[in-house]
Amino acid sequence: MITPGHVCYHLPIIMDFVHSLLNLVAPIVTLPALFFLTPVYCVFKVLWYINRSISKEDVAGKVVLIVGASSGIGEHVAYEYARRGACLVLAARREKSLREVADTAKLLGAPEAIVIPTDVSKIDELNHLVNCAGVTPMCMLEETTDITNFTSVMDINFWGYVYMTYLSIPHLRKSKGKIIVIASSASWMPAPRMSFYNASKAAVVSFYESLRRELGSDVGITIVTPGLTESEMSQGKIMNKDGEIVVDQDMRDAEMSIMPIELTTASARAVVDGACRATTAYWVVFFPEIVEWVNRWFLGVKPGASPSDALSKKLLDLPGMRHVAQPDSVRSSKIKEG
Ligand SMILES: NC(=O)c1ccc[n+]([C@@H]2O[C@H](COP(=O)([O-])OP(=O)(O)OC[C@H]3O[C@@H](n4cnc5c(N)ncnc54)[C@H](OP(=O)(O)O)[C@@H]3O)[C@@H](O)[C@H]2O)c1
User: Fold this and answer.
1) Which CATH class name applies to 63-331?
2) Which of 31, 110, 259, 315 gets the highest tally of CB atoms within 10 A of its CB?
3) Which of 81, 197, 208, 282 is catalytic?
């Protein structure tokens, strides 16, 4: 007869046996399953992708909320939706800039463009939410004078998105709408001097990948991970080591160097096309260690080092190089007011 005492005594042996059995059986079952299922899965993915590419959502007359619409990518995403006839709700802090964006959007074809400088909770119909607001801290962790200056990065880049999403989900469920989030290539290819930024963008990707599993097919989620794009950020508007928003084009040059900067119009078109087709593109970096080493060496990453000494900046300063790598607009340090 087996008593409870016997069971307890034998439990570790039984568990060991089960684990050993699983270690043996799992590879034998998994490898052939992968071998046979992978081609079927690839065919399915290709057909699914083709279907998504053909069937495109018509956003004319639909309501799109864009947070971070006063400049840069958000501003041009607004124009792209306007050309397609969507009604716009534009949010950010600078009211004057928002009004200018709203006027241009109406000229481009938006039947309506409402400006909401702060309060975004008064919306009762919504089809697309575009989360685009962001700030870009650029400094080494060791150079920061007060670490608490950077809590606002997560507040804006991560919590700002989450908060807007939370408020919008009931409306988006009703309309079978979509959430579009502007993350960054920095979420999977982190650059030095941008640890807070990279972390905030990685958090965004992870959060929305999880949310995708929670919302299922009720609300579509498109995560966009742009590379360098023409905007106030690429004009050099960054958060410095003291947590202040400044325009520092030397730091911008050292960090971005001769990496080509995409035009905002092209980037915005890709964002709205991606949202309307509900596609997601994944990029894989194969050699992270080499990328990391090159990054450190090329961008001249040393505490206290001047960005002007970085090889990345010197290369950009070579005659004619800027004209090849950067749109004219990012050479100006003039940032919109109010
Ligand atoms: N440019 C690039 O190379 C690049 C690359 C990858 C990803 N991104 C991402 O793209 C998004 C847009 O940036 P951008 O490049 O277009 O730069 P941008 O021109 O500086 O635009 C940033 C936008 O965020 C808004 N914003 C900032 N703080 C805010 C706050 N506390 N509340 C509400 N709105 C706020 C700004 O408006 P107000 O100042 O008027 O509030 C502005 O409309 C960001 O999330 C950025 O991380 C940019």
Assistant:
1) alpha beta
2) 110
3) 197
Instruction: Return the closest-CA partner of residue 186 out of 255, 278, 104, 113.
Output: 255
Predicted TM-score of the model (pTM): 0.78
> Would you call 208 a catalytic residue per the annotation?
no
| Strand ranges (E), 10-169 | 63-67, 87-91, 113-116, 128-131
Question: From ligand 1's centre to the CA of 132, what distance in Å?
Answer: 6
Q: Is 274 helix (H, G, I), strand (E, B) or coil?
A: helix
With CA atoms as reference, report the closest residue to 192 among 255, 260, 257: 255
Ligand 1 binding pocket includes 73 (Cβ within 6 Å): yes
Q: How many residues does the chain have?
A: 338
Q: Domain ranges for the chain, please list them.
A: 1-55, 63-331
The answer to whether the Cα torsion of 25, 29, 35, 41 is positive or negative is negative
**Digit-coded pLDDT (tens) for 295-309:** 778 888 777 889 899
Q: How far does residue 308's CA lie from ligand 1's centre (Å)?
A: 25
Cα angle, residue 129 at apex, residues 124 and 131 outer, rounded to 5°: 130
